[in-house]
Design goal:
The protein is α+β, with helices and mostly antiparallel strands. The chain has a domain at 11-139: PAS domain (Beta-Lactamase, 2-Layer Sandwich), CATH 3.30.450. The protein is built from seven helices and five strands, in the order H-E-E-H-H-H-E-E-E-H-H-H. It has helices at residues 11-23, 54-60, 64-67, 82-93, 143-158, 163-181, 185-191, and strands at residues 39-43, 49-52, 98-105, 111-122, 128-136. The radius of gyration is 16 Å and the shape is globular. It starts with 10 loop residues before the first helix and ends with a helix.
């Protein structure tokens, strides 16, 4: 396990971590983890990993040196719609928790699905000092529905030449879907 403060990333490690995030090519292979395993990570308020358990390291195919200090986005899969991440970050930055299905990319190019529970961590003064995420194996029965929705969102993002406009359009599509269902995202994912 890695603990906050047990080691900090050097400038060279940080550059290597950014390079890793840009150079990993999806292999098309899915990896899974056991239902009794929980992936745990913590980040600072900027999203840099300050803690990762052994399950995180194993499933993400990362070493301790690659994980500590890396932006959590180092495991972001390119097929994952950015609109879901926007919703996630807006929710936790406001002090609330969120549950979400997330497609991640391991350092070796394999992908893996998780059902994430992400919460803000508060200091003694009530201010957010970081974020904590527990990820379980997803309910495989709902992944086809999640995949279809995420493909629509990602297609909307990719339809726009301007990334910011694509993100805004995808977020609007997600908002419209949730309004149509009459529920917030968390309830929606539990209803699938």
């Amino acid at each position: 396990m890695l603990f906050a403060g047990s080691r900090t990333a050097t400038r060279g490690q940080a550059a290597g971590q950014r390079k890793l995030a840009r150079t990993v090519v999806p292999s098309g292979r899915e990896r899974t983890f056991r239902e009794d395993e929980i992936i745990v990570s913590k980040t600072d308020t900027k999203g840099r990993i300050t803690y990762a358990n052994d399950v995180f390291l194993k499933v993400a195919a990362m070493s301790e040196g690659q994980a500590l200090g890396a932006p959590h986005s180092v495991i972001r899969h390119p097929d994952m719609p950015r609109a879901v991440f926007r919703l996630l970050w807006e929710t936790i930055a406001s002090g609330r928790e969120i549950f979400a299905y997330v497609l991640n990319l391991a350092a070796d190019g394999d992908h893996y699905w998780v059902f994430a529970h992400v919460t803000p961590s508060f200091g003694p003064d009530g201010q957010i000092v970081g974020y904590h995420s527990n990820r379980r194996a997803p309910d495989r029965r709902v992944l086809p529905a999640v995949t279809a929705i995420y493909a629509r969102l990602k297609a909307e993002e990719d339809r726009h030449a301007n990334r910011a406009q694509g993100l805004d359009a995808s977020a609007a599509l997600l908002d419209a879907l949730l309004r149509e269902k009459g529920m917030p995202y968390d309830e929606f994912v539990f209803s699938l």
